[in-house]
Amino acid sequence: MPTTQRTTVKSVCPLDCPDTCSMRVEVEDGVALDLRGDREHPYTRGFLCRKMARYLDRVYSDERLMSPMRRVGPKGQGRFERISWDEVLGLIAERFAAIARSADGPQAILPYSYYGTMGKLQAGSLDRRFFHRLGASQLDRTICASAGSLGYEYTVGRGRLGADPMAVPECRFLVNWGSNTVHTNSHLWSLMIEARRRGATLVTIDPYRSPTAARSDWHIQPRPGTDAALALGVMHVLWREGLQDDDYLLRATVGAGPLRRRVLEEYPLERVADITGVDVATVAAFARRYAREQPALIRLNYGLQRHYGGGMAVRTIACLPAIVGAWRHPGGGALLSTSGAYDFAMALLTRPDLSPPGTRTVNMNQLAEALAGELPGPPVRALYVYNCNPAAVAPDQKRVAEGLARDDLFTVVHEQFATDTVDYADVVLPATTQLEHLDVHGSYGHHFVMLNPPAIAPRGECRSNNDVFRALAARLGFEPGLFPDDETLIRELLDGGPTLAGITLERLRAEGSIRLNLPERYAPFADGRFPTPSGKCELYSERMEADGLDPLPTYLPPREDPRTRPDLAARYPLQLLSPPRPQFLNSTFANQAHHLASAGDPTVELSREDAEARGLVDGQWAEVRNDRGRFLARVALTGAVRPGVAVATGIYWSKLSPGRSNVNQTTSSALTDMGGGATFFDNLVEVRPLAAESEPP
Ligand SMILES: Nc1nc2c(c(=O)[nH]1)N[C@H]1C(S)=C(S)[C@@H](COP(=O)(O)OP(=O)(O)OC[C@H]3O[C@@H](n4cnc5c(=O)[nH]c(N)nc54)[C@H](O)[C@@H]3O)O[C@H]1N2
Ligand SMILES: Nc1nc2c(c(=O)[nH]1)N[C@H]1C(S)=C(S)[C@@H](COP(=O)(O)OP(=O)(O)OC[C@H]3O[C@@H](n4cnc5c(=O)[nH]c(N)nc54)[C@H](O)[C@@H]3O)O[C@H]1N2
Ligand SMILES: [Mo]
Questions:
Q1: What is the 255 CA–ligand 2 centroid distance (Å)?
Q2: Which whole-number Å values give the CA distances from 167 to 191, 198, 287, 369, 460, in the listed order?
Q3: Whose CA is nearest to atom 22 of ligand 1?
Q4: Fold of 163-336+523-546
Q5: Which pLDDT tens digit goes with each residue over 585-598?
Q6: pLDDT number for residue 692
């Protein structure tokens, strides 16, 4: 009898989520039998979210793409025939070479990717080298975080440095500001619960009574996109009542004087209450407790910044910890992202120097415009999509689909499943999952470096992103030295700055996960020094002034707001927010039976008043629409929103939804005030009954 081979492999969750969990995979004779959260990892602490707990269903799904394919029907229909890797690589190389030689040149080729995996290798290494070397257009990856990151960076100096999440149990006042922490950062939530056991108060500031708001001690419910005004009102109270930390302000900030004048003169609480819909007493009570109950942490997340003024809103909120001196304490201050603490050698890994000078950059939120030929530069003639499902997740979906349907566009999609985007591909490449390839991870929610060795062999003919770019580079005759093996890439990446000193591939192999070289009790700005040009927290920012922005915090209303756009609101009076549904990770998992069944039909949550005024009842199918498009959803009267606000959680796949569209048919490709960010939540719509019956057509 042959003996069975059993091993345990320590892997890393690849999802675009701040938790970056450590996982243990039990493998028997090359088959992964069990996967669970690593009990020994100090941040994962043995539990996985409901999505990853069933990751093996995804790895072994019958619906995985297993071989390369070529389109046989019209674009959008998803009809393909099987071809070999040899043929498909030849086809892509030939098309790319022909476009590069043509009058349009290589910039007519556009890579399009986001973070289907957060692995440093498979998310951004040989792909970058390949497209830079080819001379393709560059992609500005702005769909998620760029507005808030820049706003935070102007203020604090590095967009992605924040409080140590491990110290959260020491906090006394925890604010989830535009963060659905329960579901989008569940391991931080468990640390918040620990803090609450020790007496902390949990507050959530969100126009939506999210699961996090519902489970908090205090829910403050502003109008969408008015957070900067709320924060300015809080500052007004702090200075008016002498609650500011003068010592920290003097040592660690610039611009306290002008900011104080602005908030005292321009943001009286009556005005703040009028803008935000939060009453004067609540603003004052929040400010007093925030100042006094230290350490206080503001967990701001990216949902907050998906409005026109999103960059300025994050910048404004990021001033608060300096005013009350919250940065003095481990766990105190603000937490947007921790990824800036990793001194990875990113330029070595991605080689931006290979991209010819003057190469254009396309903002990924403007895929509709790029495909319609509305951006400067040559037309987009080829699109290479990987780690991303733009047909479902990008704004202005109808126009994105029109672009993807162009017959003169050559589209390559590298995917694990036949997504909405795959349906528009000319050629499809089957991708490995996290259990099938090597990778290394940082995190944007903690401070560990983690290695993900492959646990099983690639299924079918699946190949990793890097394996494909190596093969394409060889076909195009690029220097082999630029496309080394994955282990070499890991060594290059780890050859970075001080927080990585002593962290090697060998140590990662032995230990799996290693904390960055940071003080055990890490409080990044306790000493009052900030990595800004002035060395201080910039309440007044000369860099913003130079960039044509208001150097002081201010309130910028949404683009689509009944207050500022009464004309538009006359037809589309409801402000629609579309944050994630807990069962999905963006559009990942939204095709899998278990998750889809647990999520149920798409919903639109409305206030009872708004539903009654439209003759809508709970559970009924309705059409949500504006001038950009429409989608169908069941009305849900959950009591979670105020009149004038609607919520449709996602992201469902369009082809699996009634009406074959999702919420992004209504969202706009307009950009934020800074950073070129997406404005998914800055979206006026109207909702109307679909039919007398409760079933969709
Ligand atoms: N389960 C699950 N987890 C995820 C994801 C997922 O899809 N599913 N996505 C991952 C990704 S890519 C990201 S970027 C993060 C996002 O993590 P979060 O930022 O927490 O995600 P959102 O739910 O988009 O936004 C948080 C909250 O902001 C609220 N919000 C909307 N507009 C405003 C506003 O104007 N002001 C305030 N104060 N709040 C507002 C929304 O109602 C929502 O409840 O989560 C990651 N984790
Ligand atoms: N209306 C609305 N729209 C939104 C948002 C919202 O809150 N509301 N959120 C926005 C945000 S925050 C984000 S981050 C974006 C996310 O948008 P995307 O980055 O497109 O995220 P996903 O929908 O999860 O799609 C990732 C795809 O990558 C694939 N994938 C995973 N691993 C690999 C791999 O190793 N190789 C290859 N080739 N493919 C792989 C997965 O199968 C999946 O289909 O969506 C944005 N869109
Ligand atoms: Mo995101």
A1: 39
A2: 9, 13, 23, 44, 44
A3: 303
A4: Dimethylsulfoxide Reductase; domain 2 (3.40.228)
A5: 999 999 999 999 99
A6: 53
